[in-house]
Amino acid sequence: MIALLIGAGLALAFAMIGTPLFIRFLVKQGYGQIIREDGPTSHQIKRGTPTMGGTVVVGSVVASYFITHLIVWLLNPNSAGPTASGLLMIFLMVGMGLVGFLDDFLKITKQHNTGLNAKSKLAGQAIVGIAFAIMALGFPNELGRTPASTFISFARDIPSLNLAFAGAGLGVVLFVVWSNLIIAAATNGVNLTDGLDGLATGAAILVFGAYTLIGMWQSSQACGGGKLPAETVCYEVRDPLDLSLLAAIMFAALIGFLWWNTSPAKIFMGDTGSLAIGGAMAGFAILSRTELLLAIIGGLFVLITFSVIIQVGFFKLSKGKRVFLMAPLQHHFELKGWKEVTVVVRFWILAGLMVAVGLGAFYAEWIVRL
After folding, report:
1. Any stretches that span the bilayer, and where are they (predicted)?
2. What is the pLDDT of residue 213?
């Protein structure tokens, strides 16, 4: 618990102090956001607002994670230190953040709202995602547990849904495909949600708060401790407490960033932030064995993503007709006359309700097994 408090405190301080310093640097360099011409006209006043704010979030998380482990080691030289799961999470978050950073940087330098082309962006995400998935099936601990498994999971691995049903080799291939689908869905979901001041940041805070609790619970109910009434209720997650630490650090870093990102935003997270945050969400789902549960906990991101799919699909099938005034969904309500802050707060409420339902489902699964 003390490690969580130290990590969260450091991340909050780094983000709160680092963000305005980064804003000054970006303003001095003239690195401002390019606004879509086809977006809501009210957004044109945001043109030139500093972007790539996700750089501060990623930097705060990485620094806080390693400094926290150093402090804990100084207090207790017998502490475990960074774990395989924690380092894999850092790799996935930083890797996705770098792809987003390249995209943001090209947008700024070209002064156009297109950065990396679609193929280059997908290739970058695929390289990071494939490397993460392959490594996640390695690094067994003393109990033989690896950070990830070839089972599809909800609140834990589902025994009847093993991707290695036809052999270990095929299982690895299918797991790489499955994990990259989760990563792509999460990163695109956060990217689509990041359209209003503070919307994606606030919703992500709630998701990482949920994973902080899930990691703590899985740690207290870990298999092999001999304290549980039945082995059917324990969790075979490799490093749940370290995952909880990282989730708490993400939670706190985003709170610090939200101070400056809330309406009227002094800085945007950019693709640097949205891809890094989405990658982290996917990583938590895969490594905590809650892959399908993420669709509930991150329900707001799913809802917004589906609004785009519905809009594009219906537009093509109907030859020009639309379901929403504009997609993603948050812009539909803007054009309906809702103020930006009203949309953001109401969507935060929806995100909170979905997180509550997800946590309830997670706990209900444990109760049923008990």
Report:
1. 6-27, 52-75, 81-102, 122-140, 160-186, 198-217, 243-260, 267-287, 293-315, 343-364
2. 98
